[in-house]
Amino acid sequence: MAHKCLVAVALTVGAVLSVSANGQRPESNGASSRASRSQRSNGSLVAAATMSAARAAHTATALSDGRVLVAGGFLEKGDATGAELYDSRTGRFSPLPPMIANRHSHTATRLQDGTVLIAGGYGEGTSTLATAEVFDPATSTFSATGALVTARAGHVAVLLQNGKVLITGGVAPGWDFLSSAELYDPATGRFTATGSMTTARESHVAVRLANGQVLVVGGHRGRRADITLHTSAEIYDPAAGAFTHVGDMRIRRHKHDAVLLADGRVLITGGSDERDERGVYDTSELFDPATRSFTAGPLMKLRRYKHAGSSLLLSNGVVLIAGGAPQAETFDPRTRSFSVVSGEVTMAGQFSAVAPMTSGGALVTGGYGHGSGPQSAAWLYRP
Question: 0.85 exceeded by the pTM?
Fold first, then answer.
């Protein structure tokens, strides 16, 4: 679902049991966390400084100078908020001048020149935004750029090899679920339409493959009793400006995540079925671009969802999955195994935002879930 009703849901998430797609007996998040502490761990999580505002459905973008831009998100009452910077040298967050528009459920993409494109999302009063802006790290200011062709929130953005940004899907005003896509050109500051996806998607994920094409997978269209979840995947070819269906996942997923592995395959983790917090997955699968097929992966240690953008490929080839559950875990492609990250830290987990650090670790910020609303807390992952 789109994020206008997320705050109400957040207050109950922690008390609900989730169901594994493999049919195993569900267990509570708390029980999963206790059991996971006995598993082999990889790295550690420690508490970091607190942000200046509580946030969920925000973005965290690593800048070329090692700082992290944390932008937008919603507060306890659902209102969108502004931005701040995390400086690893001081270990502190500092507020920034106002954004052009406070927003949540938007996208933030670091461009090739080091600036950051922030596009769409929900604004004040849950309005759906067509506005976009660019953050300049050199001046720590936001400036307006061209407007989206279609106002949208809950969409996905991917930086292409040619420097343009591909924007796909999401929700338009009036709960119109979008199959349309558009391109942002930093040279002109304008968005233009490109070929549409084969189906309307929100709560989907997209990954740029090693060949420069973009894999788009899963998600849903519709709401409540009329919701339809997707198993389908498609690939966008920048040269042709078109999407092509490439197959189906083993199970339907939305609110999941995906990350490109060092060997060119894509790891897809978690998500849920139509029951949302009552149907959270601990399953994973792998997409092989060479065969354009999906195969089952191992079970994660924790069930997790609402964690898109929380998975990072580390320099050693291991993947950190830092969102969607009270604890983070790693995936080692060499052993095909997940391991819980050590430490007694309990994170909010859902709709948090994660950014890589120059130290090789990661900064995990905000989110909600497990009985709490949006959090101002942040955590550091140390490999």
Answer: yes
